[in-house]
Amino acid sequence: MPVRPSLQEIRWLSSAAKSPAQFRSFLRRSFRGEPLAVGLSVSSGFVHSGLIYIHTSTVVLTGSQPFHELHLRVHQPVLIPRPETEEWAIRLSELLVPSKLALSRPLSILDLGTGTGCIPLLLCHVWRPKGQVRAHGIDINPAAVELANENGAACGLSPDTFKAVQGNFLAPNFPGNLPENIAPPFDIVTSNPPYIPLDEYRELPASVARYEDRGALLGGPTGLEFYRAIARLTAKKGFLSPGAVVALEIGYNQADAVRNIMHASGFNTQVWVDAWGKERTIIARRFVRVG
Fold this sequence. Notes:
By secondary structure, the chain is α/β, with parallel strands linked by helices.
C-alpha cells in the first residue's frame, strides 16, 4: 500500500528540492515507501538546537543529515545518524573536555563501527577548540570508511585529527592489523554497534529493512555479539588509558545485559536515559582497585 507523506513532510520536501522536477521525484519515492530524510520536518520527535527530527530516518532523499552543528553526507548502504545517537554524543562532549584532562598528548578517540563518522566528528568539532584531539573511526564497510573520511574533510578536519580506516574489530588480531598510527592506549572508545536481535530484525518495517544496511543493524541472534567483542577488546591490558571512558549505544531493552557483559570484563557502568525515556547508552570505566 502506498505511504502518504504528511502535509508537513511535503512542505519539508518542497523546501529541500532544488527544482519542481526534483520535488516531484521526492514525492514519487516517498509514496513508494522510501523513508524521508530527517532535519527540517515537523513530526513526533526530538527537538535540539532548533532542529526538529522525525524519529525514524533511513535512506535520505536529499543526501545530507544534520547532526548537532554538522551537516553530514549520507547515502546507502551506510546507516543514517539517529537523533538518539546525537543526543548522547552531545552529552558525552559536555562530560569530557580535553583541556580539563591535563593530558600531555592529544586526546585519543576510537569509534568502532563508525558509519558516517558522526560520533567522532561531533566530538572533534566540539573539542578541537578546547584541546588537541585525534580520532579514528573503524568500519568493516569500505563505503562507510570512504563516506566518513569525506565527512571529516567537509567538517574541516585534517587526517591528523580524524581518519577512518577499514577494519574488523571482531577479528582476534584487532587492532594489530591497523596502521601503526592507530594504536592504544585510547582515552575514549565509542560505538553504536549493530544491536538488533535476529527475531526483531525480521519484524522491522519494510521502510527500514529495505533501505538500511543489514550489517549495520543485525547484532547476531541475541543482539549482543558486538558488545561481547567490545568488552573483550577494551579489557585487554594497555588498550585503554587510565581513567578511559567507553560509551556504547544500546537497544531499548539491553541495558542489563550489556552492563553484565561489561561488569564481567572489569568495568563499572552507568546507564544514560534518552529524551524518549529509553535506556540508551552505557558509560563504562575500568574498576579502580585499591591496595
